[in-house]
Design a protein that fits this description.
The structure is a homodimer. Chain A is of the alpha+beta class. Chain A has two domains: about 250 residues, L-amino peptidase D-ALA esterase/amidase (4-Layer Sandwich); about 120 residues, Ubiquitin-like (UB roll), CATH 3.10.20.340. Helices cover about 30% and strands about 25% of the residues of chain A. Chain A is built from twelve helices and 16 strands. In chain A, the strands form three sheets. The first copy, chain A, has a seven-stranded mixed sheet with strand order 9-16-11-15-12-13-14, sandwiched between helices. In chain A, helix 6 crosses helix 7 and helix 8 crosses helix 10. The longest helix of chain A is centred in the middle third of the chain and has 20 residues.
Chain lengths: ~400, ~400
């Protein structure tokens, strides 16, 4: 897999989160010559919140995690994730695999299965050869280390071309609070979560209920605002674990909310930058809509339009397709009030191309790697932003032959 | 443009519809060395019904046609269509172009502008050079002929690789009724109509109001059940003109309804077969849904999924992606009640792959050019069928560089 041209230079230095240890290994679930399983151990008392796909065909591990949220948190906890096989649409066998993995982690760590969260990502519909994972667990437990997060980020990759990490440090009342997160995902990415797995760790102190509420609200502003191909996975999982070791209560902290949002948005953007076949990162800003919800609807209509995305791939400033996407969105719009901008360039206004716009200026703008398309609907004050990438031959190549 | 591998062998022999004459010509709106404008003249008394895009940014000709439906029909009528430029998002200039064309047709034919319907298809946002069209109108009027329908079908093509026509003849009370239709469209095709122009002519006798009702109902079962790329045009127009010259009143005729539906479905399928880059024609049948509307929602979720469409392009029997598309559709579904078939092959049932299914059988099936995917949700009796094509490198090639 060629590295995405939109990849960052290197994996970021993530702070160590006190109370969390990681390990990763090669279980050979599907891939050869790479790691494909990660374990995270969380100290006793860690609050665990989660947001999961709403797919009607969600996977066995997702259903298991959802059932376990909000359990008594006096015990330690563990996260066990494998790549290569999603254990989705695998019938009763899928549930047995989750059980077998949880039992093995519990046996090796002494952690109750009620506090063991698993996830699987990869091909749908093939039995998970969970014995390959369970026989690796002793080794994973023995190699747990507080600075193993980069290895964990690598072990959960599927068609990703780079591991994804982001962090924040903030000072509250003179004390430092740290957040470190990792993510995987590059195709089947759409709102309502994506084929995304995201794990965020913090030493902040916050109860499970407010952490869950915060995570849900921030997911709507971050991961649910990105789209690669409008497809939604059966396995999407986002877990945030707060160990509380900093001693700083962040329950009412606007600073923590902002920092967590920044980490989530950074990871979400990295997922788009690793979109299958992506060569352009595109921010679609919609303003002047009847409501925020309508703005988002228009944004997603643009960001999911194959015709808009292929035009961007071809560096073609084909703003007519943006008009089309606004028109089909179902949101309230008026041709004559619409303003479209590429970056700072006003392309269209008053129901037609802007008198100052030139095709040359538009074409020159489209050559950039990071693009901003702004649409003002001129109706009212609703606004929203979504992020996407272009649709290229690379996407077809990757997806027309993924399984063989 | 290479001919679609799914194209029919030849343009069908369409019956002459008494009371309709056609002509076509090369106005040079955008294309060189081909025809790009068609005129149809309809005898006095012809009932004209129409269904149009619901896009919020629909084009000036669409708005004009919608305003003219239901006018007094004692006069003759005319249809004037150009390809190469859609006259959409062209501000007030767009309306002036429609007016200029209608005036020119009226001057040359003596038909009132209230009975002149225009359409334009092609690039969005560029001023329509309507003077190129108006100066051709005398010539078009002079060359009107009752057997010019194939030429008309060719003149309205844009990225189409073949002209599309379909017909039916039926006998009612010993008398023959004829229907002949043409269509264009190959990209930006999605429910709520497509970048499609469809013109259907019949010598049946039926008033405008019942014809309008019939056309709307049949559009929902035909053109609104196809999707190439989920994008919806600003120009979609379907017009059905009934001259009444057969003398047969079809207002209550089930046979006529069926024949008109057959013609519409045939044209709709031809549009899919000419889908940009298409190499496979796919019928998606959904049964067992909570309601017919839910069945259609699931069908469209499958038919619009880039991951399903690229798998089909790669001849990959990746049924896991169908499970994903069912799950994300928002319709009521239950993993364990789902049955998926490729043709007659049961692929998945009872929440997992079928015990009799082999990857070899699935892969062999996927090599066919025409595919049927059946999904039974096992919930209730709702059903629906949609038609689509695969998503290939050809689609990217065509659309990443359409304007230049």
């Amino acid at each position: 897999m060629t590295l995405s041209p939109l990849a960052p230079d290197h994996f970021p230095d993530l702070p160590v989160i006190d109370g969390v240890r990681f390990s990763s290994g090669a279980a050979g679930v599907k891939y050869k010559d790479r790691t494909d399983v990660m374990l995270a151990e969380l100290m006793a008392g860690t609050s665990i919140a989660g947001v999961f796909t709403r797919s009607a065909t969600r996977s066995a591990p997702v259903l298991d995690c959802q059932a376990k949220l909000g359990a008594d948190q006096s015990d330690r906890a563990a996260l066990l994730v494998n790549s290569g096989n999603s254990n989705a649409f695998t019938g009763a066998a899928g549930e047995r695999s989750v059980e077998a993995i949880c039992d093995a982690v519990s046996d090796a760590t002494g952690i109750s299965t009620a506090r063991i969260f698993t996830a699987s990502t990869g091909v749908i519909g093939q039995r998970l050869p969970h014995e390959k994972i369970t026989q690796k667990i002793e080794e994973l437990v023995e190699s747990l280390t507080c600075d193993g997060i980069e290895g964990a980020a690598k072990a959960i990759m599927t068609t990703d071309t780079f591991p994804k990490g982001a962090s924040a440090e903030l000072t509250i009342d003179g004390q430092t609070v740290r957040i470190a997160g990792i993510a995987k995902g590059s195709g089947m990415i759409a709102p309502d979560m994506a084929t995304m797995l995201v794990y965020i760790f913090t030493d902040a102190k916050i109860d499970q209920a407010p952490l869950q509420a915060l995570l849900g609200a921030l997911t709507d502003q971050t991961f649910n605002c990105i789209t690669v191909d409008s497809d939604t996975s059966t396995s999407d999982s986002l877990i945030c674990a707060a160990t509380g070791t900093s001693g700083v209560d962040v329950t009412e902290s606007a600073g923590f909310t902002q920092a967590l949002r920044d980490v989530m948005l950074d990871l979400a953007h990295q997922v788009v930058r690793d979109g299958e076949g992506a060569t352009k990162f595109v921010e679609v800003r919609v303003t002047g809509a009847a409501t925020d919800a309508e703005a988002r609807k228009v944004g997603l209509s643009i960001a999911n339009s194959p015709l808009v995305k292929t035009a961007i791939a071809g560096e073609d400033p084909n703003w007519g397709r943006i008009v089309m996407a606004v028109g089909k969105s179902g949101a309230q719009a008026d041709r004559d009030r619409l303003t479209i901008r590429f970056g700072d360039i006003i392309v269209a206004e008053n129901g037609w191309v802007s008198p100052d716009y030139t095709e040359e200026a538009g074409a020159a703008y489209m050559k950039a790697q990071d693009l901003t398309i702004t649409v003002d609907l001129g109706i009212a004050g609703g606004m929203g932003t979504v992020w996407t990438c272009d649709l290229t031959h690379g996407y077809i190549t990757i997806n027309a032959d993924y399984r063989s």
